[in-house]
Amino acid sequence: MISVNDFKTGLTIEIDGGLWKVVDFQHVKPGKGAAFVRSKLKNLRTGAVQEKTFRAGEKVGKAHIANRKMQYLYESAGAYVFMDMENYEQIELSASQIEYELNYLKENMEVNILMYESETLGVDLPNTVILRVEETEPGIKGDTASGGSKPAKMETGLMVNVPFFVNADDMLIVNTTDGSYVSRA
């Protein structure tokens, strides 16, 4: 058990049989009444985000989530196959389990798979990935980095707003938390 006073962003907890990840939290001490913790929790099984308020000092169960380093191999009939880098064991995840992560996954990419006991919860992406620009409007001479942006379709199908100087087949670093352009690779 863990006290809600010890919440940290990224902590995984168990409430009413559900697995939740702390996305955001705030300790509130009103002038009148008891202190409480306002939190934003993400369900690791469904992906739903919920706001929940706890009394200060309330105890919740801590969920022990394991990270297994795996390599994304291929997609076959809607199932995405990952291989454990140590024992070569393969697991399959459905598109609904990794819907958001598919925007960033490329074949042979190494990722962490989140496991709870023997249940596979999903994919933990790195903070940034390198993707190739599949198509975008051509750059015009004289465009600068701070002069605005244009849409670009990446090799995974993700649409990213990029500076005007970016061209097709450029390799870009993309932030996986919000899908934004970081820099050229």
3D architecture notes:
This protein is 0% helix and 53% strand. The chain has a six-stranded antiparallel beta sheet, with no helix packed on it. A five-stranded antiparallel beta sheet has the order 9-8-7-10-11, with no helix packed on it. Strands 14-13-12-15-16 form a five-stranded antiparallel beta sheet, with no helix packed on it. The protein has strands at 2-3, 12-15, 18-28, 36-43, 49-55, 59-62, 66-76, 79-84, 90-94, 110-116, 119-124, 128-136, 150-154, 159-162, 171-175, 181-184. The mean pLDDT is 88. The protein folds into three domains: 2-62, Roll (SH3 type barrels); 66-124, OB fold (Dihydrolipoamide Acetyltransferase, E2P) (Beta Barrel), CATH 2.40.50; 128-184, OB fold (Dihydrolipoamide Acetyltransferase, E2P). With 185 residues, it is mostly beta strands. Residues 67-121 form the Translation elongation factor P/YeiP central domain.
